[in-house]
């Protein structure tokens, strides 16, 4: 169950410690409460927290309360497609190489060590190179080059994949927007529209539109 209203840095810290370490910390805190307070009072915080979580979990599972895990789920069958510059989305625009990025993805599979991953999408390899040579990226890279000896525990890696038009697609059922589906695209409806607006690439599949893998890849059906 997601933990609400917890700062991101505390979530990262949570993953830095093994489960056994957190159990030991809890045992120490509980022992201190038992030593300093009457037993019936010392046991009350743990009992209340555990009882509350059991009750809330039961009510959600039985459908009496909405599930916080399902709040961001998009119902139905949908696909993420790249919009045209004016915001319209058609099968003809299905596989323009596109620009967007995911939020931070956190992996902790290596014994609680945090790995932060960002997946970005670019119109072309040239656009990616332009960003890499730009001021923002250059400033970050210069800092890392200067400070890496001071912070040897911080490592950086990147991977690049080139996906031409007609060589990617996606589909989701009752799923939280993720990856391509989580991106937002800046479109401008009229000439001179300097600010524009950001739109989602998500499209519900219906009839023949986006219904097959080939249609989502912009290919003609055989």
Polypeptide structure, described:
It is a single chain. With 222 residues, the protein is an alpha+beta fold. The chain is 33% helix and 14% strand. The chain is built from seven helices and nine strands, in the order ααααβββββααββββα. The strands form four sheets. Strands 6-1-9 form a three-stranded antiparallel beta sheet, with no helix packed on it. Strand 3 and strand 4 form a beta hairpin. The longest helix has 18 residues, at 19-36. It is flat and about 75 Å long. Mean pLDDT is 78; it is low at 94-98.
> Which radius of gyration do the C-alpha atoms yield?
24 Å
Widest sheet: strand ordering: 6-1-9
- The mean pLDDT is 78
- Beta-strand content estimate: 5-15%
Helix percentage: 25-40%
Compute the number of strand runs. 9
Instruction: Look at the helices and sheets and give the structural class.
Output: alpha+beta
Q: The biggest beta sheet, please?
A: 3 strands, antiparallel
* Ends distance: 45 Å
Flag low-confidence runs.
94-98
Short structural summary:
With 222 residues, this protein is an alpha+beta fold. It is 33% helix and 14% strand.
Write the SSE topology.
Layout: H1 8-16, H2 19-36, H3 39-42, H4 44-61, E1 74-80, E2 100-101, E3 105-107, E4 115-117, E5 120-121, H5 125-132, H6 135-147, E6 172-175, E7 185-187, E8 197-199, E9 202-204, H7 213-216
Features:
222 residues; three-stranded antiparallel sheet; two-stranded antiparallel sheet
């Amino acid at each position: 169950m997601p933990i609400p209203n917890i700062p991101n840095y505390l979530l990262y810290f949570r993953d830095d410690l093994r489960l056994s370490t957190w159990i030991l910390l809890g045992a120490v805190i509980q022992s201190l409460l038992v030593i300093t307070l009457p037993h019936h009072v010392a046991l009350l915080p743990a009992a209340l927290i555990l009882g509350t979580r059991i009750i809330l979990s039961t009510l959600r599972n039985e459908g009496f309360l909405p599930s916080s895990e399902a709040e961001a789920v998009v119902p139905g069958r949908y696909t993420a497609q790249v919009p045209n510059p004016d915001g319209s989305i058609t099968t003809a625009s299905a596989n323009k190489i596109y620009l967007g990025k995911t939020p931070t993805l956190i992996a902790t599979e290596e014994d609680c060590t945090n790995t932060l991953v960002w997946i970005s999408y670019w119109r072309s390899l040239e656009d990616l190179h332009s960003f890499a040579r730009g001021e923002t990226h250059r400033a970050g890279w210069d800092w890392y080059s200067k400070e890496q000896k001071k912070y040897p525990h911080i490592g950086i890696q990147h991977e690049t994949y080139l996906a031409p038009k007609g060589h990617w697609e996606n589909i989701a059922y009752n799923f939280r927007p993720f990856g391509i589906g989580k991106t937002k695209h800046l479109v401008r409806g009229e000439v001179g529209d300097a600010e524009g607006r950001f739109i989602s690439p998500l499209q519900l599949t219906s009839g023949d539109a986006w219904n097959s893998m080939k249609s989502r890849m912009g290919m003609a059906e055989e």
